[in-house]
Amino acid sequence: MFRKHFLKILIGFLFSAVLIYLTLRQVNFKESFELIKNANYYILIPGVLIYALTYVLRSVRYYFILSPVKKTPVLQNFPYTVLGFFMNNVIPLRLGEVIRAKVTGERLGVSRSSALGTIVIERLLDMIMFVLFFFVIMAVLPFPDFIKKTFYLCAVIFGAALAVLFLISKNETKAVSVFSKIPMPRKIKEFVVNLFSKFAGGLTILRKPKVFSAAFILTVFIWVAESVFLVITALSCGIDVSIIGGIFVVIIIGIGAIIPTAPGYIGAFEFMGVTALAALSVDKDAAFACIALYHFLQIMTIFTLGISSILKEKISFSDLFKFEKIEEQQ
């Protein structure tokens, strides 16, 4: 798998290196380190707990997203939800999502491609929330035209993606029929069409307005909680950031996570975070201290939850990387 993606992985690491360089050349690292060393770590404790809570909220949200495919106890998917984020901090190219689909499918008894379809809905909800939050923030904070145009474009792209997925979900049989007409060798076509059919089955939530609304509301709480954690981290470094400003910074970091980088979004996270705080008139040395601390605490929280989940569920580390073949389980 990694040989197959070697070029992409290399490009990701190069992107990270460039973005780290662009970030560090703007700051006095010694000043930033002093700010980190003298941060108020006591007030970070509730911040970390709030951040850990977002994974409980994500697990409840995934319960709703998965429920049209299969009913499970509300928090049964918690270890596998955490696992996806944990693996994204271990391997590049967001392959943690594929591993999460694999493990979720195996442990909860659903097809892996259906699980992948539900995870696609989850990520799309996050992106749509970013755009909606931005439109709210835009009424409060002034932005250059190029930033506004970028988010207008994002709104069109994510809206179109949601519309396409909704059409596939609503017309599942027809969509599979159209997909099956694509010229391919017979054996490959049977395999691919079967995967597409099960993937489409994972989009069922789009036909369930009440269930989708519950997932949408939970998405709001998730990102507001992440923003509160950023505000608390900023406060620990002596930076006063409003909750609206915190949401703005988290959104910009989230958009930056789309960039293919090294594991843990290293480089993109720091560059986008410092840029966003600088746009709020925060000194760049203080901004880097805040974002570096925020990112480190996120990684350590995910690492702790991830390792705990792997041990609790008795998941083999070696098995996590055996995801080259998506073998469907009925």
Structural notes for this entry:
With 330 residues, the protein is mainly alpha-helical. The protein has helices spanning 6-24, 29-37, 44-66, 78-88, 96-108, 112-138, 145-170, 172-180, 186-201, 209-236, 243-256, 268-279, 284-313, 317-320.
Strand content: under 5%
* Secondary structure tally: strands: 0
Q: Give the helix level as a range of percent.
A: over 70%
Dominant shape: globular
Number of helices: 14
N-to-C terminal Cα separation, in Å?
25 Å
Unreliable stretches, pLDDT < 50, 5 or more residues? Answer: 323-330
Residue-averaged pLDDT: 84
Structural class: mainly alpha
Write down the Rg.
Answer: 20 Å
Instruction: Please describe the biggest sheet, giving its number of strands, its sense, and whether it closes into a barrel.
Output: none
Spell out the helices and strands N to C.
HHHHHHHHHHHHHH
Topology:
Elements: H1 6-24, H2 29-37, H3 44-66, H4 78-88, H5 96-108, H6 112-138, H7 145-170, H8 172-180, H9 186-201, H10 209-236, H11 243-256, H12 268-279, H13 284-313, H14 317-320
Helix pairs in contact: 1-12, 2-13, 3-6, 3-10, 4-5, 4-13, 5-6, 6-7, 6-9, 6-11, 7-8, 8-9, 10-11, 10-13, 11-12, 12-13
